[in-house]
């Protein structure tokens, strides 16, 4: 059980920020003709304290994400008794796959068959299959990961053949500096790619799109998971 002092200042701040994010999710879902329950809030807690995570968990947040493994593992250990779902959203290097396969329920940025094969081989037999999303590359930027849309079908087929992985959907990170109309267009392109892959039998049910600065637009374009850090926690320390 997660117990914190009810009058803690961090409680008040996080409660207000969470209420604001939830209201924006509900409004965007309504604009898209959807129920707010069709959108999963994933709190990105990199750089935050265990107490902050506990506060959000007590306020009803169930899904949390990490980008940096060396920062994540001590926090996961401290929160081992909490019934939380952990997502790894950073770009995954080959030397980190064993720890991620053993400690996380979701991986959002899968973009290479080699990484998929390592995750599959290293997923503990006692754990359920690891949920994965393919990261779609939206910009010709070598610093950004992702699979090109033209090769997403090939990678999806290879992942679906791995028994310890469960391919759930697509993930994207927008290039910096886009106007709202261009942001919407990029999100819609990923939604169309999901539809194309599903028409070929991929069976995808997840679109991990949208972060603190653009998640209402992502929801209006079909996002089913939004990855929110700053809008919940404030600026990273």
Portion of residues in helices? 40-55%
Oligomeric form: single chain
What CATH calls the topology is TIM Barrel
N-end to C-end Cα span: 27 Å
User: Which CATH class?
Assistant: Alpha Beta
Describe what this molecule looks like in 3D.
The protein has one domain: TIM Barrel, CATH 3.20.20. Helices cover 43% and strands 16% of the residues. It contains nine helices and eight strands. α5 links the parallel β4 and β5. It is globular.
Outline the fold blueprint.
Layout: H1 9-31, E1 40-44, H2 50-58, E2 63-66, H3 69-78, E3 85-88, H4 97-103, E4 106-110, H5 113-122, E5 130-135, H6 149-160, E6 165-171, H7 180-199, E7 206-208, H8 215-220, E8 225-228, H9 230-233
Parallel strand pairs: 1-2, 1-8, 2-3, 3-4, 4-5, 5-6, 6-7
Helix pairs in contact: 4-5
